[in-house]
Design goal:
The complex is a heterodimer of chains A (about 100) and B (about 425).
Chain A (H helix, E strand, L loop, with lengths): L1 E5 L2 E5 L13 H11 L5 H15 L6 H5 L6 H7 L4 H8 L10
Antiparallel strand pairs in A: 1-2
Chain B lengths: L1 E6 L3 H13 L5 E6 L4 E3 L18 E3 L9 E3 L3 E5 L4 E4 L3 E3 L2 E4 L3 E3 L16 E2 L4 H13 L3 E7 L9 H15 L6 E6 L9 H7 L1 H5 L2 E4 L4 E5 L4 E4 L4 E3 L2 E5 L2 E3 L1 H5 L24 E3 L12 H19 L12 E8 L2 E7 L7 E6 L3 E5 L4 H18 L17 E2 L7
Helix pairs in contact in B: 1-7
The chains are: A mainly alpha (about 100), B alpha/beta (about 425).
GO molecular function, one term (chain B): oxidoreductase activity
Pfam families (chain B): Pyr_redox_2
Protein name (chain B): Sulfide:quinone oxidoreductase
């Protein structure tokens, strides 16, 4: 764990740059993480990000399939919003932990 | 008389029947367990069956042997749970309960992926998460002459999340022993960021893939199987060709959970992570793969959960607050091939680390390091499963909560 300044705010991040505390997140932080990945955020992106944050707060697991069923985007659209690894990048931008397996 | 009803006589349900029959007064509580299937499978054996390490007989027994005599064992199909009326409808019988334990597990749902159940299913595409799939794969491997072997995970969560990786490692050994490793390309395809997603594991274990010549494809979310071209295709039209596809289809909770309106979008039941009480109904408890708790879907987890849940059922009956005790503890052997294995011990918040297990400094098992002893441990576990685990006998020196004794936090993240 280390401290990184993103959009002028000092936040705790994991080795791969995921926020350790989702409460330190704000929209400016999201925009800066997104631009590092090469994504410019639109209102549609934020709808997905807010959905992921709500699910995480409710301690529900995140799946690509779940996002596809959310009524916000289908999976193809999710890929267009967050190319090359939608859950990996969307969760990083949403300030929530990286989806992991047991090892 | 009051009624405690258990749905599902797999690993978790059978353990609960054994635990509770010893603890509940027989003149006060009837215990009933329902499962339509007669056979109890040793599911970890499905990993070994394809490589002819285990025989069919070693992985299946008659389930009834493991249900205590004073428990009413009903072999019928469960139609629906009516939580508001405290009743469960079976195919031709209605059961009422005071306390319900749902242990209906998880199963593969290959029909969720387009093209998976097509012309190549069970010809060049196999699963090993069912007895039938694992057996069919064994027969295929016995005569397979080589080509592109793709080991593939559809999406998380899956039962025993390391099994696909173990399969790839064991396949490497299997083909080496057969003298045909040079004829087989092995690829490991995952929707996650890599084979190892936890920093301690990726630091300690990444050498394994290189050592075994296993090619990695990460961030691959399958959209469909192209049966004509023999390729799996993701949502960005990335294509991975295969001659033999060993896939882990989507895992879902039982259809009865969906029908009863108790599950999430994968039919897993929202459950308190620490007490194992269902979030929606206070007299419904959930254990094993049927829950949505973010622990591994594995027998060791069900075993640790069973100890906490037994205590909580007793507390609930007497009107006391439940123990917020379960910590997501999992303890798993991971086969790495060449008759070696790793052992990992972790929980909701602590990643697998180095150390010795179960005794500090003595071991004899080593955590997160390959050893022959760990492999023997995994093979010995089959005996422990049939003779101790299912009967609810505690495994000596292994506690329900993760212990920090003997753990060494020496793995530094890579810069």
């Amino acid at each position: 764990m280390s401290v990184k300044t993103i959009a002028g705010v000092a936040v705790n991040v994991s080795e791969d740059g995921y926020l350790e505390d989702m409460n330190q997140w704000n929209e400016e932080i999201a925009k800066e993480i997104a631009s590092e990945i090469g994504i410019e955020l639109t209102p549609k992106h934020f709808e997905v990000l807010n959905y992921l944050r709500e699910k995480t707060k409710a301690k529900e697991s995140l799946t690509i399939r779940g996002v596809g069923k959310s009524g916000i985007v289908d999976i193809k659209e999710l890929y267009k919003l967050f190319p090359k690894g939608p859950l990996k990048f969307s969760s990083k931008i949403a300030g929530i932990p990286k989806p992991t397996s047991c090892i | 008389m009051k009624n405690l009803l258990i749905l599902g006589a797999g690993t978790a349900g059978t353990m609960m029947a054994n635990h509770l029959r010893h603890k509940l007064y027989k003149d006060k509580w009837n215990i009933t367990i329902v499962d339509q299937y007669k056979t109890h499978y040793y599911q970890p054996g499905f990993l070994f069956l394809p490589f002819d390490t285990y025989t069919e007989k070693q992985v299946k027994k008659v389930g009834k042997k493991f249900i205590p005599k004073d428990v009413n064992y009903i072999q019928k199909k469960i139609e629906q749970i009516y939580p508001e009326e405290n009743k469960v409808q079976l195919e031709d019988e209605t059961l009422y309960y005071d306390i319900l334990i749902v242990a209906t597990g998880s199963k593969i749902a290959p029909e969720e992926t387009e093209g998976l159940i097509g012309p190549l299913w069970k010809k060049d595409i196999f699963d090993f998460y069912t007895f039938e799939g694992s057996l069919a794969l064994r027969n295929k491997l016995r005569e397979w002459e080589g080509g592109k072997l793709v080991v593939h995970i559809t999406e998380m969560p899956i039962k025993c999340p390391v099994a696909p990786l173990e399969f790839a490692f064991l396949a490497d050994s299997y083909f080496r022993e057969k003298g045909m490793r040079d004829k087989v390309e092995i690829s490991y395809v995952t929707p996650l960021t890599g084979a190892f997603t936890k920093p301690t594991c990726s630091t300690a274990l990444s050498y394994l893939l290189k050592e075994k010549g296993i090619h990695m494809e990460s961030d691959f979310a399958i959209e469909h199987v192209d049966n004509d071209k023999k390729e799996i295709v993701d949502y960005e039209d990335r294509r991975i060709p295969f001659d033999l596809l060993v896939t882990i289809p989507t895992n879902m909770g039982d259809a009865v959970i969906e029908k009863s309106g108790l599950g999430d979008d994968l039919n897993f039941i929202p459950t308190d992570h620490n007490t194992l009480q269902s979030l929606a109904h206070e007299n419904i408890f959930v254990i094993g793969d049927a829950t949505n708790v973010p622990a591994s879907k594995a027998g060791s987890v069900a075993h640790f959960e069973a100890e906490t849940l037994t205590d909580n059922i007793l507390l609930y009956i007497d009107g006391y607050p439940l123990k917020k005790e379960f910590d997501g503890h999992a303890n798993c052997f991971i086969e790495t091939g060449n008759k070696k294995a790793l052992l990992i011990d972790f929980n909701y918040v602590t990643e697998p680390v180095h150390g010795t297990f179960p005794f500090s400094k003595i071991g004899p098992l080593k955590l997160l390091k390959e050893s022959v002893f760990n492999h023997w441990g995994k093979l010995a576990f089959r005996w422990i499963y049939w003779n101790m685990l299912l009967k609810g006998i505690a495994i000596p020196f292994v506690s329900r909560n993760m212990s920090f004794k003997g753990k060494v936090f020496d793995i530094k993240p890579e810069k």
